[in-house]
Amino acid sequence: MLRHHTMAVTMRITKLPGLMEVPCRAPLFNLLALFAVLISSSVAAHDPGLSQVDLQLQQNKVTAHLTFSKTDIASLIELDSDMDGAVSDAELDQATPALKQWLQQAFQLSVADKDLTGKHINIQQDDSNALHFRLHYPINQGEQLVLRSPMLDTLPLGHRQFVKVRVEDAIVNTRILSARTSLMTLDIPKNRGWALLLEFIGEGIWHIWIGYDHILFLFTLLLPAVLLKSNQQEQTIKHLLWHTGKVVTAFTVAHSLTLALSIFDIISLPGQWVESLIALSVIIAACNNIFNWLNRELWLMAFLFGLIHGLGFASVLTELGLQDNQLLALLGFNAGVEIGQLAIILVCLPLLSAVKSEQYYRPLILRNGSWVIVAMASVWLVERITDSSLHQLFI
Where are the domains of the chain? Predict the structure, then answer.
């Protein structure tokens, strides 16, 4: 009798998609099974997702790089207007005003209870279904920064945001934020003063020592400089220092000028053009040694081409990162370049002066040496124009 009663209340759930036929021996069990299936289907259909924030802290600026899934953003802002399953560049441009407005509300930084306004917002997409937002916030050094992500409660339930905080290139803090915990507090690094200055002096020295094209240009100008005389008289130490000093000073003034103008975004040239022109400057300086286009006006060539070399220094300085303290870093780097340059001159000048009176100096060192320099710089020029190494051009 009991067996028949149990069989009578047995039910089979067969109409739910993806659910196997399960015998249940009580109505309550059936309801629980149905609820579990619906919950699992909901979770599968709505991945909670993960976004990322990469903060670079500097003394006068915070740079924020945020990465979101297009799927998450599309639930809030229309991206794929033609419904073809892909977001084109034109569609992204169309959605950009709405994305910028949303971002200002979705991601907030504040100092002393005062909200900061993001500047220069850049939005890009990639092939991995991600949208990248990059923006800058001006701040004052030594302050406490509060980060909020109030948009987390508008994204699918369970969404997490991974925050990574850097000072210079070192990661100093990481945090996982969620709708429940969407705030974190950070300290802005203080001014490092002399330490920063010394650091960039070292970078300037190192760069000029590994900048073979800069060294070769300077060396090419020194080759004829040790031969220049005053009023057809035998060159003295005083005359040597005078002529060499004019060349070096002209080069220094020129590259310091364009280095500063480039760092402060007053002038700018594509990097490939700058590197190619630097190689060309070495070729022209070496040809001048062979054909004697300029004699006592070497300083003029040093100044004109020094303007191009300064743009090359600027590209290196930009890669090092100047947001910490632009002026201090610029002064330190430029001072380092001059120190490194002076060290090279102090080594080369005595050696060239020691052999300048030998009869083989002009034909062997000045002329033939300059032809070797022309060949080397020509290889650099071809490689930089074609953006490839020379041996690859013949493969």
Answer: 2-45, 50-187, 194-394
